[in-house]
Specification:
Strand content: 35-45%
Distance between the termini: 20 Å
Order of helices and strands: EEEEEE
Length: 85
């Protein structure tokens, strides 16, 4: 059996983004989604984060550049689960 004939493990749907109300518990390099009014408006890797969790810079997916998000603007952050193979 070669590697091409191996079956991929089915996705069970149990890995869901985790809501993070306290942004100060996030870490640089966390993969996150930013939600506003229930919609994903940005996703990517945290590039910089204020120690008090008041703001974060996000290096957005798909080459969309960096974006600044303020906790006081009411955005919700969801940490993406780490893929464990």
């Amino acid at each position: 059996m070669n590697t091409r004939s191996r079956m991929a493990k089915p996705h069970t749907g149990s890995l869901r983004p985790e809501p993070i109300p306290n942004w100060s518990t996030l870490s640089r390099t966390d993969e996150v989604e930013i939600h506003n009014h229930g919609r994903v408006i940005a996703s990517g890797r945290i590039d910089m984060l204020a120690l008090d969790g008041s703001m974060l810079w996000l290096q957005q997916d798909d080459g969309q550049g960096r974006a600044l998000f303020l906790h006081s603007d009411g955005m919700r952050v969801y940490r993406r689960p780490v893929n464990q193979s």
